[in-house]
Amino acid sequence: MNRELAASEPLAVRTASSIRWTPLRVVLGVYLASVAVSVVIALALSGGRFAYSLDDPYIHLELARSIARGHYGVNPGEFSSPASSALWPFLLAPFAALGIEEFVPLAAGIVLGALIAWLVVLVVERSLPGVSFRRRVGVVTLSVAILLATNIVGLALNGMETSVQVLLAGLALLGLLREHETGRVDGWLAPALILGPLIRYENLAITVPAIGYLLMRRQIVPALVTFGGTALTLGAFSGFLLLLGQGPLPTSVLAKGSLAAGMSLRDWIADHVVAALRAQPFVPVWMLLLAIGWLAGSAYRPLIGWLLAAATLQIAAGSWGWMGRYEMYLMLPLYLLAVLVIGPLLRPFADRRPPLYLAAAAVLTLVVTARTGFYPTLVTPPMMANVAQEHGTLHRIALAYGRPVGVNDLGWVSYRNDSYVLDFWGLASREALTRRLAGGDWMDELAERHGVRLALIYDEWFPERPKHWIRVATVRPAIVRNHPVAVFARDPATAAEARLLLADLAATPGGAAIELEP
């Protein structure tokens, strides 16, 4: 605590002020209000239909239902590995067994977001310690800016495991920070580092450098426990997939990471670096800021080395963007450590300038450097309404048709749908992924083998689709119109049947527009 600054305020003012509010209460209030407003806007846009802001969580929900029934895959009797997380579907499975899984990701996301807000305030208070009004306003301002920059509100509403991922990355920073301050390793640090990659593989970029950090700090036992626990758990999951006839990594990881594309390692890394710079062009700036702090002899040099290594791994091999979800596990500790490093500059600025100055600086920094976190927060409500319209309509089409269908967005179409769903993109079909990446005439052959006569796909994603397929209709959501879905029939009889079915569904209010082809 800054004793001189605290003593400069009258005791009565300090006591009354501390009773009225604390930074944590204000930040939690802002976070929860933002979540509530986002949900209300989404429900208003969608006509009262709730949906997550992405289609992907419905893959996890359906996989959880299958796990609860003793099967691993989205289609009965067919093993597949469509989930991007090793652990998340298993955590949802007990709720699926009770039939209450659908809103568990929402409740978990809101609670986890609140924990992330707590962690952010806890770290920022280290940079701006004290009970003065200006210091506390500074903590609130910086904490809210970081929550917006890392899309914490949006992550709470996307239904994915990313809120867990980001929290675990933040706990890794906090645990290493406490080790740096005290020389002792808290008992929860190793479990947090081990759980991170089980929630999402990207957290290996946090865990592996953390093992190096612990070894350099001569924390041998925690380092060995973290290494052994990570290798054992990930190895066990890979062994489980191999026993099911899958590869050692989930198909969804291969499909989204280009690992199955047969690229050279150099080209693969180059593609990831370009994607990183497009999605987060200011990441090198934040890394440079940390590097300058390291060269200037910052007290946080060991932590800077750890996080620069993590950022390098994410840039070289990680995914970026798409509703601000892939990289936020890195951006949260990056922003927090940057605030700690520039703390010696922040404190006099906050003490000598009106709070509005720091707020303006934080907002300007947020808007300029963190658009991939801030922008997804703003568009989360319309994206939730869009999923409710588009993917909700596709789900109703699949259920009304009642037979196998082909798709490129697997989630909601497969959720609570007992008919076979052929995933042309390959998340739920290793063969489809391999054939798609190889090119050629494969879609009709695969559809014939699985009895698929109707396909619901983004036609621009499949320029190689068979020429004899008949376009029956276009499903066009009114909220976000970036990817209309084409409905294709493989033969004239199916086309005629589909037209009658779609004409009936087109009259259903609140869904996406179904435009029948002449």
Topology:
Elements: H1 3-7, H2 11-20, H3 23-46, H4 57-68, H5 88-97, H6 104-127, H7 133-149, H8 152-156, H9 162-182, H10 189-199, H11 204-216, H12 220-243, H13 251-257, H14 265-279, H15 283-295, H16 301-317, H17 328-341, H18 343-352, H19 355-369, H20 371-401, E1 405-407, H21 411-414, E2 421-423, H22 430-438, H23 443-449, E3 454-457, E4 470-476, E5 485-489, H24 492-506, E6 513-516
Parallel strand pairs: 1-2, 1-3
Antiparallel strand pairs: 3-5, 4-5, 4-6
What's the quick description here?
With 518 residues, the chain is mainly α.
Describe the structure.
With 518 residues, the protein is mostly helical. It has two domains: 44-243 and 276-378, no CATH class; 382-516, D-Maltodextrin-Binding Protein, domain 2, CATH 3.40.190. The chain contains 24 helices and six strands. The chain has helices at 3-7, 11-20, 23-46, 57-68, 88-97, 104-127, 133-149, 152-156, 162-182, 189-199, 204-216, 220-243, 251-257, 265-279, 283-295, 301-317, 328-341, 343-352, 355-369, 371-401, 411-414, 430-438, 443-449, 492-506, and strands spanning 405-407, 421-423, 454-457, 470-476, 485-489, 513-516. It has a six-stranded mixed sheet with strand order 2-1-3-5-4-6, with helices on one face. α20 crosses α24. 48% of the residues are buried.
Widest sheet: strand order?
A: 2-1-3-5-4-6
Which class of secondary structure composition applies to the elements? Answer: mainly alpha
Beta fraction of the residues?
Answer: 5-15%
How does the major sheet shape up? 6 strands, mixed
